[in-house]
Structures are given as C-alpha cells and as structure tokens.
Amino acid sequence: MKGKIDKIFRDKGFGFIHSDSGSQVFFHKSDLIGTTFTTLQEGNTVEFNEEQTDKGPRASDISKVHSLTVTPNAKIKLRETIQTKSRSPEKAIRLITSENTPNGLRFAFDRERQGDHVVTAEDGKKILLVAPDIIQLIEGMTIDYDEKSEGASFTIN
After folding, report:
1. Cα separation of 95 and 128, whole Å?
2. Concatenated DSSP letters of 91-102
3. Which class for 70: exposed (0-12), middle (13-18), buried (19 or more C-beta within 10 A)?
4. E-strand spans in 10-141?
5. 47-69: per-residue pLDDT in tens?
6. Which terminus of the chain, N or C, has fewer Cβ atoms within 10 Å?
7. How many CB atoms lie within 10 A of CB 46?
8. What topology is assigned to 69-156 in CATH?
9. Would the pLDDT of 131 be above 90?
10. Which homologous superfamily does the CATH classification assign to the domain defined by 2-64?
11. Every domain of the chain and the residues it spans
12. Angle 153-156-157 (CA atoms, 0-180°, nearest 5)?
C-alpha cells in the first residue's frame, strides 16, 4: 500500500500516514525500513503494510518511495550491458561511490541487498541497484545514456 507522511511527532517517535485509500494510519519509528526517522519528512511518499490493531490501523515495513528516473534509453543500455558482461543471471548493475570518478559514482555488478532501490527493465529483470545512502544523494535525478561523437556514457542529472 502507498501513502504520504501526514504528520510526524519527532519528540514522541511516531506519526501518521495518509494512505492512498484515504485512511489515516499510525506508524512508529521502529517500523521504518531503509530510511531513518530523522530524514523522513511530511509529504514523503511511502510504501507500507497495513495491520488492524485494537487501536486502529497501524503501518509496518515502511519504506520511503524514492524518485529516481531512469530513461528508456538508459534501461536498454543497462540491460544490454548485463547480458553481455555478466555471467550471473541474478546480478544487476549497482551504483556505488568512487573517489576516482568526476561525479564520485561508478557502476559495478552485484546482487540485490536489503533496502536497495531496485530499477527493473520492461521484462521485469532487475537492472539497477542503488543503496539507501546513495539514493538519498541522487533523489529526484535522472539517469540517461547518451551517445555522442566523442563517446557514449551514462549521465546523472
């Protein structure tokens, strides 16, 4: 289920989610996955499981929905790269930090880890993995693949 953070009571460690179905759902900071209570903001979109308790609906397994756009052209190139360069069908391309690149990021093959933001191709295969600490750095950005006369490359803007 999806919803938006409606109200946060930081001093008490809980808040409320306005679910897409229209209900107000209680949550506790201990129910967050892949994000921290201090970085969660009112208005953030979240995914969660809703449980009925004797006090009303309560959210569990809450994860922030991150906005990262991967263009169709980039998805195609990521998928092609996995097919031609990886020998393991369960691996995808992970975006990782690197001190040796101009923007501080690079790609490597890896398996999915808990808390990863996962981008899939049209066929449902995992093509891009982004760890929670990195997704916060590139929130709202777009990954594209561009072929120019001076060479082809992925861009993050």
Report:
1. 7
2. -EEEEEE-TTST
3. buried
4. 14-19, 24-28, 45-53, 56-64, 69-70, 92-97, 105-110, 117-120, 126-130
5. 999 999 999 999 999 988 877 88
6. C
7. 22
8. Hypothetical Protein Aq_1857; Chain: A; (2.60.300)
9. no
10. Nucleic acid-binding proteins (2.40.50.140)
11. 2-64, 69-156
12. 130
